[in-house]
Design goal:
Order of helices and strands: HHHHHHEEEEEEEEEEEEE
Mean pLDDT: 80
Distance between the termini: 105 Å
Low-confidence stretches: 1-32
Shape: elongated
Number of helices: 6
Number of strands: 13
């Protein structure tokens, strides 16, 4: 019996000493909350909302698919759907970044917790060895070596404090172990979800490529102008005429406040290619035999990542979307003098209507939106209100038509 009490006393005293030794290391060091779960949850909610938008657009596309005369409307819906997919890609990339930051953060916190646990365990073992080597202190002596009743009460209070301290040690160890377990679970979940997000990102990129190809194929069918697609080709021409009329109208409204333009002085709108795939001027459709007039030039070989430059100082007249021109920007360089940049990628506009731009300033990125069979930049110049051949201002161009 005395032996058991002695062991209990030793453990209680060790616990008390252990608590004193742990006062400075108790608890985890505060971690910098670079990433929170709520931020990840918000990104997941965004992904859900974008998925709903994409599905709604797909329903509209499906409803038009059998009507060849509305192919241009389908292209517009596909462009909008592709914009949503690009947002999904951006959202997923942000989610992956947050997961990676959370993983790094959790790993640091886990390492800190495990270090503290190892230090405390090492301290406990050292104190146990020291008490075993001493062998003179017992819990019994704490209570029964009192010199008088007052001393006994004092010793009883000390014993109670030792027991409370013992419980605090146990609670602290349990809390520390629980936190380590939680950190490990969080780390495992984050690693798993990060891998899933990376797979989802690849899937979204493949989906975007497929949808872009679908829009380009539809534009190619309209370009062929065969059968039912002749109506769609007429719709393209009508849309182009509407846009050109709108540009002229807006420029006339601003004419009084615009300076008198100077002829020439343009630079290339891109630096990645000088390949001209379609020239300026009248042309006859090879299938339908219909006459049309190309009011600008098409610059090919630009891909989806080439910066588009303002070719002259001016004010942004339009920055919007048309089913024929896709996303496009028009810059006014003075009364009757404008430049147009069409088939741009959505979300890459670097300027807004009313902005003053300088020659060489990046205004957006090349793409294949609207009536387009592949990535290129449609570029046109108007002087004195009429379109002129841009090739007279684009030295060193490569003919490819």
């Amino acid at each position: 019996m005395k032996k058991k009490l002695w062991k209990r006393g030793v453990l209680l005293l060790l616990a008390a000493l252990f608590v004193v030794g742990c006062v400075q290391t108790e608890g985890l060091a505060p971690a910098v909350e670079a990433v929170t779960q709520s931020e990840i949850d918000n990104l997941k909610d965004n992904a859900s909302d974008l998925g709903d938008q994409k599905d709604a657009l797909q329903s509209q596309i499906d409803a038009l698919e059998s009507d060849k005369s509305k192919a241009l409307e389908q292209i517009e819906l596909l462009d909008k759907q592709n914009d949503v997919i690009r947002q999904e890609i951006s959202n997923t990339e942000s989610l992956i970044t947050n997961y990676e930051n959370l993983i790094t953060q959790t790993q640091a916190e886990l390492e800190d917790a495990e270090r503290q646990e190892a230090e405390q365990y090492d301290l406990f073992c050292k104190r146990v060895r020291a008490m075993e080597e001493n062998g003179t202190v017992s819990y019994w002596s704490v209570l029964f070596n009192a010199t008088d009743f007052a001393d006994l009460l004092s010793r009883l209070d000390a014993a109670n404090e030792i027991m409370e301290a013992d419980q605090r040690v146990i609670d602290n160890l349990k809390a520390l172990q629980a936190e380590i377990s939680e950190k490990k679970a969080t780390l495992e979940t984050s690693l798993s979800e990060s891998q899933a997000a990376k797979k989802e990102l690849e899937s979204k990129k493949a989906e975007l490529e497929s949808q872009i190809a679908k829009a380009q194929e539809l534009a190619a069918q309209i370009e062929d102008g065969i059968g039912e697609y002749e109506e769609a080709l007429e719709a393209v021409e009508a849309e182009e005429a509407r846009v050109q009329a709108e540009i002229k109208r807006k420029e006339q409204e601003l004419a009084a406040s615009l300076p008198q333009p100077t002829a020439g002085g343009y630079i290339w709108p891109v630096t990645t290619s000088k390949k001209i795939t379609c020239k300026f001027g009248p042309r006859t459709h090879p299938i339908t035999g219909k006459y049309s007039n190309h009011t600008g030039v098409d610059i090919g070989g630009v891909g989806y990542t080439s910066n588009i430059l303002a070719t002259k100082d001016g004010i942004v007249l339009e920055a919007t979307y048309s089913s024929a021109y896709g996303y496009y920007i028009v810059i006014s360089h003075g009364s009757g003098n404008t430049t147009m940049y069409a088939h741009m990628s959505k979300g890459t506009f670097r300027v807004s209507v009313g902005d003053h731009v300088t020659q060489g300033q990046v205004i957006g990125t090349t793409g294949s939106t609207g009536y387009s069979t592949g990535p290129h930049l449609h570029y046109e110049i108007r002087e004195n209100g009429s379109p002129v051949d841009p090739l007279q201002y684009l030295p060193g161009y490569i003919q490819s038509w």
